[in-house]
Design brief:
This protein is of the alpha/beta class. Helices cover 46% and strands 18% of the residues. The protein has helices spanning 2-14, 36-49, 66-75, 92-97, 112-119, 134-138, 150-162, 164-181, 184-195, 212-223, 243-253, 270-280, 299-309, 335-338, 354-362, 378-387, 389-392, 399-407, 427-431, 437-453, 458-475, and strands at 22-27, 53-58, 82-86, 100-103, 124-127, 142-145, 202-208, 231-236, 259-262, 285-288, 294-295, 313-323, 329-331, 350-353, 374-377, 412-424. Strands 7, 8, 9, 10, 11, 12, 13, 14, 15 and 16 form a 10-stranded mixed β-sheet that branches. A 6-stranded parallel β-sheet has the order 3-2-1-4-5-6, sandwiched between helices. Strand 7, helix 10 and strand 8 (231-236) form a beta-alpha-beta unit. Helix 12 packs across helix 16, helix 16 packs across helix 18 and helix 20 packs antiparallel against helix 21. The longest helix has 18 residues, at 164-181. The chain is elongated and about 95 Å long. It starts with a helix and ends with a helix.
Length: 479
């Protein structure tokens, strides 16, 4: 903001304009197709009402049209309020110092000057049906005006110039659109997709609640991945600590493009956050990277390869190392946890049909103990989340298990035996001192759901019942 104020003052000094004057900017080749005559007509309408407004058009001009425009400006007494600097490659000063951008083109496929204006924080006014930027501008980056209605165009400019709060709102919205959809980084991804259309784009969703002490290390483990991240969505569920501030500062310092989505009130459900995050993403694959976990640099690259080699995959996951709240290793993996199902299955990489994974492993327990260790196909995950959205609200510990069962009805699963994910086990989760009958009931409920929907063998059902009995005995819970 300080830079814009300085640029505004510098631009007005450059053209000897009053300090409190308002500037309407246009940049480009001044000809009839670009609507330079409409620019002048709109200027006349607005200047009639407000002589403190100045119109500046930066760029070369049509030699045949320029004398007519000059004569028109002189005839209407607008010479003091309309400025044609000609070609000036230093357009940054004009974008930063103006108040609103006027695109008066009669025909313009996709004028990049509009993106430059929005990136600089300028609201934009455009004629409807004349350019390819209407959809972008209409999403609160500015205003659309009926085609070539210069009176209404002038009223639109006046409305924006007169209301500082409204102008600021349009400015912020326009910048957000450019930041999220038209950055140079996005452009590079688009170029790469033309060269290699099969290369997956990965969205990362970081759900956070009160993890200030871990958030910088977590984000660092994301930006250091050996496979490029397409977009990062940081979701905060009304934290009262400084985790949002720390995340924002860290990501800015690393030059990472990201979106912050902050709840004013706690949602009460981590799964509602998952749905919000996945809905807001646009990548092919999604990584739900919980804010207190960590990942090795090879995590994404290793799991993406699974999708490259198996087109029907809906999820891929890796083995997880268990760490304490302080980062100390508690166990190198979860093989002891899954040994009652198989002592060998998780020793090597594999690809399995979804139904086979369900009836042999997920019929007994949640064998994917940490969502941070999973990479999902976005469309399939969103479909699974939405299909059991209401049901998820009834789970406190088994919701992720429920999602995996739903998701694996759509395709295959791949497993990587390397411990590339670090699952942070806090005191309560390590000791399970808060384990109660409700949570035991959720496990039994999931076992029953799988048994009812799938053809589970008698042997697997016995393993499931044995697991329940073990938990009852371990935590002193009755039948």
């Amino acid at each position: 903001q300080a830079g814009r104020c300085e640029a505004a003052a510098t631009l007005r000094r450059k053209w000897s304009l009053p300090e409190d004057s308002k500037i309407v900017l246009a940049v480009g080749y001044a000809d009839k197709r670009k609507g330079v005559d409409l620019f002048v007509d709109a200027a006349q309408e607005l200047i009639k009402q407000d002589h403190s407004t100045f119109f500046i058009w930066v760029g070369h001009h049509d030699d045949a049209l320029k004398p007519k425009i000059d004569a028109l400006i002189k005839e209407k007494g607008l010479s003091d309020n309309i400025i044609f600097p000609g070609l000036d490659f230093d357009t940054d000063l004009y974008y930063a110092g103006a108040d609103v951008y006027a695109l008066t083109s009669r025909e313009d496929p996709f004028p990049l000057v509009v993106l430059e204006a929005m990136q600089s924080g300028l609201p934009v006014v455009v004629f409807s049906g004349a350019t390819g930027v209407e959809e972008v501008v209409s999403r609160s980056g500015g205003e659309l005006v009926a085609a070539f209605d210069v009176q209404e165009y002038a009223r639109s400019l006046s409305r924006i110039l007169a209301d500082k709060d409204y102008r600021s709102k349009l400015s912020i919205a326009g910048r957000d659109i450019i930041h999220s959809e038209f950055s140079f980084r996005r452009y590079l991804f688009d170029l790469e997709s033309l060269w290699n259309p099969e290369r997956a784009k990965i969205s990362v969703v970081v759900p956070n609640y009160q993890y200030e002490q871990y958030i910088e290390d977590r984000l660092d483990s994301i930006v250091r991945q050996d496979y490029p991240v397409y977009e990062l969505v940081f979701l905060d569920d009304a934290s009262s600590d400084n985790s949002v501030k720390r995340a924002d500062h860290f990501l800015k310092s690393r030059g990472v493009e990201y979106t912050l989505d902050i709840n004013a009130k706690n949602s009460g459900s981590v799964f509602s956050q998952w749905i919000k995050g996945v809905e807001s993403c646009s990548g092919d694959l999604v990584w739900i990277a919980e804010a207190d976990d960590l990942a090795g640099a090879e995590f994404l690259g290793s799991l993406v390869k699974k999708f490259d080699s198996e087109p029907n995959l809906v999820m891929a996951y890796c083995q997880s190392c268990q760490i304490s709240g302080e980062g100390e290793t508690l166990a190198p993996d979860y093989r002891d946890y899954t040994a009652d199902i198989s002592s060998t299955r998780w020793n090597n990489d594999y690809v399995s049909d979804g139904w086979e994974e369900i009836v042999t492993t997920l019929a007994v327990k949640n064998t994917i103990p940490n969502v941070s260790g999973v990479l999902f196909k976005r469309e399939a995950l969103l479909r699974a989340l939405k299909s059991c959205e209401e049901e998820l609200k009834t789970y406190s510990i088994a919701g992720d298990w429920r999602i995996y069962v739903e998701l694996l009805g759509y395709g295959k699963i791949a497993y990587c035996s390397d411990s590339l994910n670090l699952h942070r086990r806090h005191l309560k989760s390590v000791t399970l001192d808060n384990f109660n009958k409700q949570q035991l009931d959720e496990i039994a409920r999931m076992q029953a759901l799988v048994a009812a929907r799938f053809d589970v063998s008698a042997e697997t059902k016995e393993k499931a019942e044995s697991y329940l009995m073990q938990l009852r005995k371990q935590f002193g819970l009755s039948e």
